[in-house]
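I hope you will forgive my troubling you with a question about protein structure. I should value your view on which stretches of the chain appear to form regular backbone elements. Here, with my thanks, is the record as I have it:
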Amino acid sequence: MLKASICTIGDELLIGQVIDTNSAHISRAIGAIGAKVTAMVSIPDDGSRIISDLKAQLADNDIVITTGGLGPTKDDITKQALATLSGTDKYYMHEGQLQIVHEILKSRGLDVLDINRQQAMVPDTCEVILNKRGTAPVMVFRGLGKGNSTLYAMPGVPFETEAALPDVVADIVAHYPTDNILHRNIMTYGMAESALAKKISDWEDALPKEVHLAYLPDPLKGVRLRLSIYSGSLDNETQVLDNKIDELSKILGDVIYSFQDDTLEEAIGRILKENNLTLSAAESCTGGEIAHLITTVPGSSAYFLGSVTSYAVSVKEKVLGVPAEVIEKYGVVSSETACAMADGVRKLTGSDYAVSTTGYAGPGGGDERYPEGTVWVGVATPEGVFSEKFNYKNDRRRNIQRFAASALHFLLKQIQRQRTL
């Protein structure tokens, strides 16, 4: 099996100033072609450490992919370290990348300085994959390590890395034999990881030895179950995983919300778009978090009509039409108010579905009946209005995130239920 290591370079990663997202994108991309990532390593801006750490990774892997340290400033020393690692001190100007440097700077209204031209200078031991989104090319060093290892040095800017990944993957496929790797994702929500593991324990114990199960919890997405087979016939692998997923579906029911690597908002958006349905939101304690999540999905304008952040009681009454007597009798945080908010914004926007939240994100607020961390979620549908209560014990920011995720999951269940009626 093709083994790979991903190495990020830069002090900013080690001190927590910048969050590494490149490793995840690279891992997914090369995993899809049958490479198994054996390590992810963060290396400081230190020439000797870059060389020694990369030598260690090259000794154990067929492929090493680095990101970062290729910029034009003095702290970007990766290129020099890679030249030393590959046994050269000579460089050449790559005309193709130089042309891109000129085009990028011209489009920004900037002059091309010597420091910019230096971006297109590369060690004479490397091949180049053009970076069409930035000034530093991807450098490819072959025959390192034990003689058959390849090092791909990619830029650290995430959108540049993502744009260059398809070309890097194509180069890997062209130079290495790859095995079949099949991953299937089962997205669950509403059941803690420990409870989930207990519920599917017998099913997990009966998995064939070639099938690997991973639990990947996320407070906003739920627990992702990933089933993997790392070798064999692709047709056979697919059939095996299909059978296991069918068994799992019967055990978990609507705890499963998607069989893709989805977020809740993506799963909702796909159903709404496919069925030409629309959605609106009325938020109090979540302060627009639901609308934010929904609109992060490309194409959400096709189904999301808008939202009302009805933080004040006056906005609930005057904009959403929540009757004053409902709030007076049941309270701002109640099933009745949540339902009235959802129904009000559905009527206001003319959407097919609407979701609402009202609760106590904390710190402070709440009472014995509905303590801090309580949220009521309302969902208005063509068939009626429904509500559910959730309670979490986190800080304010995390409570808001959990409130929004729970609201989206409750909304998704209502949409799915009514689509099957």
Q: What stands out?
A: The first strand starts at residue 2 and ends at 9. The first helix runs from residue 11 to 14.
